[in-house]
Predict the 3D structure of the following.
Amino acid sequence: MLILPLDNPFYMGALIALACFFLVQLYYYLRFILWFGVKKERDRGEQKEGVSVIIPVYFYDESFFDTLKVVLNQEYDKYEVIAINVNANEVVEEQLGMLASEYQHLHVTFLPEGNQFSKKIAITIGAKAAKNDWLLFVDSSCRIESAKWLSQMAGEMVESNDVVIGYANNDYVASGVNHLFRLERLYRNIFAFAFGRAGYSVAFDGRNVAFRKKMFFDHKAFAGVMNESFAENELLLPRYINTKNVGVVTTDGSAVKYDEYLRLKDWGDLVKKHRWVLRKYNFKRKNLFYVEILSRLLFWTTALLLIIKGVALPVVLGVIGFRLILQIVGFKLAINRLGERKILLSSLAYDLLLPIIMFIGFLKELLNIKR
């Protein structure tokens, strides 16, 4: 009995298409994902760049002040912390004032209540107040546990870099929506960091990101994007990033975790934001993502068709099995590199879900344009 349907041009064409999509996927996993997982972090040595850590504070949260104390006690010599009291909350002002009297490198400023663009303006106020050449941004909902966080990020603040990107994701919570958030951010970051290590840097998240103060003001901060619905530094990064000016940091202690109240709508907004940010990058960078996502969607669609029709099952199942092994190994290495946990198996399911989500989002946008 023939394994290949040589007498049926349609099924043979489908098998050839499956092989082509598989080869594209093989290239991505070998060239980017596996390489990111096994490549050793560069040892830049100890850096002495001055760093200004900028943190907008929106409301009083006891856990934030615990984190702020960790930031204020970093094992790094030349740095300052600028906290912006957004909406001029009195309790926040009191607590920050007490800490400022204890820590001379903590500087406090404020933004009056009721500003429509509060987050963008808060970031700009912090940048203007900064005395150092590098600006490092986190949010008040962050959790930083390592006293070496700043020194790890500063390790990539070298002369050849203008942007430094660290890992940021939601902390583990036994919640379905939280897990969706973690999966979305994990997936984007794995590919973004893998592409970055290969010289095609992309960043989706403006948190745990640093760039030079000069670059911030040379590009006129948020000019031209003030009315955009997304409020973080990811609005700026597509303008800042080029082929060789980005450092990626994934060493132990460099990651930032966030504890946020999340709804399903927030996850949908996050997917929209990532899609919006991706469109702002140049042709080569965004198409690295588009080709991978499209080839993945077509791979699974073609494989499912051939399985339903019972065509060349040993070949089709063998190709699927080999791809799954590559994915499991690649993602396991990448997840370990990023310090994540309890997410490997669900990431395999998200591998199927994400291309469908992207395709549906694209169709919605197309229909809205036509209307």
Notes: The longest strand covers residues 79-86. DSSP finds twelve helices and ten strands in the chain.
